[in-house]
Amino acid sequence: MRLLYLEIKRMLKVKRIRIVLILAVCLSILLAYLPVTFESVSYTEETGNIVELKGIKAVRYKKNLQKDIAGVVTDQKVRMAVEECQKVFHEYGVRDYYELPDEIYVKRILPVIPLVKGVREVFANPSTGMAPNILEIDAAEIEDYYARCEEWVASLMEIEQKDNPAAQDFAVRTYHNVEKPYQYYPGTSRNAMDYQILLALGILILCTMISTPVFSSDYQTGANDIFRTTKKGGIYYGNIKIAAGILVCSGVYLACMALYLIISNGLFGWECTKTSVQMVYSIVNLPDFNIGELQLAVMFGGLLSVWATMGIALYFSSISRNTVVSLSLGFVLCILPLFVYVIIPDKVGLWMNCILPSGGVCLQTSYLFQLIDFQFLNIGGQAVWIPYVMVAFAIVEIPLSLVITIRCYLNYKLS
């Protein structure tokens, strides 16, 4: 343990790593604050002046407007929201929100819009998936809102997975177990979730800068030759270096994620973490999570990706005498899923992004986007949801890559 402590202490004294730590903290603070700057709202005062609010002021204003719908999303609340929208549309002779005067939209539609968003999805055509206009919906049918949600998830899966009955059955069973009625608290932001993934990718790249030189820098400077002459300079020292690299990277990732969530949730309001995932994304999303639980799932899923990526990055370090080469390979590994997602289509691309260790934090291929999606892989005649596949591959890759790394380190000694 003392040798592990000394190795971690030595790593933290390296100027390059200190710079990486500072960058990681600054990136966390910046990305936590940015989503708030996207919030804006304007309204007209009684005097006729137009007031534009941005940032935290806009968040607070919207939360005040929507305070009456906070809490449990009952069938009655949803019906009242739809009836209010239909009433406003009839009064002004319009068929969509953008046709309304801004002040009317802010005063009468914005206070109820979070409850209305999922209604059009639930009442979509079961054959085509096309959502109806809000005026075409019979408000009386919303009395059975959650029963309609159960029906819609079955119809949606018939459209999305028409050749995969096992996936259809899994989705229907999983959604049935989702806690209902949903909950909604004003201030919830999708942008904040997106930026959490962006931060995870940024931290992964910075952690790669920490881990890839672990062995190759010693090879390059000749320090490795000295350590190999000591009593514990073989497999024991190799394991110590691997453990130190992973512990430092894990600490950086978890600390930065915690800092991000504290700042972000503090700005938007901690009560927003109780909002059901279905009220923010698709009304029939499969995870039985609220936003706070989704944040934690994304954070710990990202940690698995960091560990798996670090394992392969350490392998690159163990076989390369040049730190530039190992750094370059590590960077390519981090961003490779972005190119696979764009270039390689359909199931092959899905498989590759599940296998690639950094896929869990690479934006569109990340755990967040897979959790709110309805994609499955057929494995042994069974439909397996993509997030489960990604977790399984990461769990296998972590020990496998570390074993290969230590073997390569020992073989380097023999060569």
Describe the secondary-structure layout.
Layout: H1 2-12, H2 15-37, E1 40-44, E2 50-54, H3 56-65, E3 71-72, H4 75-92, H5 102-109, H6 113-122, H7 145-160, H8 165-176, E4 183-184, H9 190-211, H10 213-221, H11 223-227, H12 235-268, H13 291-319, H14 323-343, H15 346-355, H16 367-371, E5 376-379, E6 382-385, H17 386-414
Antiparallel strand pairs: 1-2, 3-4, 5-6
What does this structure look like?
- α7 runs antiparallel to α8, α9 packs parallel to α13 and α14 runs antiparallel to α15.
- It is elongated and about 85 Å long.
- The model has no long low-confidence stretch (mean pLDDT 90).
- It has 2 domains: 262 residues, no CATH class; 107 residues, no CATH class.
- The chain is built from 17 helices and 6 strands.
- Strands 1-2 form a two-stranded antiparallel ribbon. Strands 3-4 form a two-stranded antiparallel sheet.
- A hairpin with a 5-residue loop joins β1 and β2.
- The chain is 66% helix and 5% strand.
- It has 415 residues and is mostly helical.
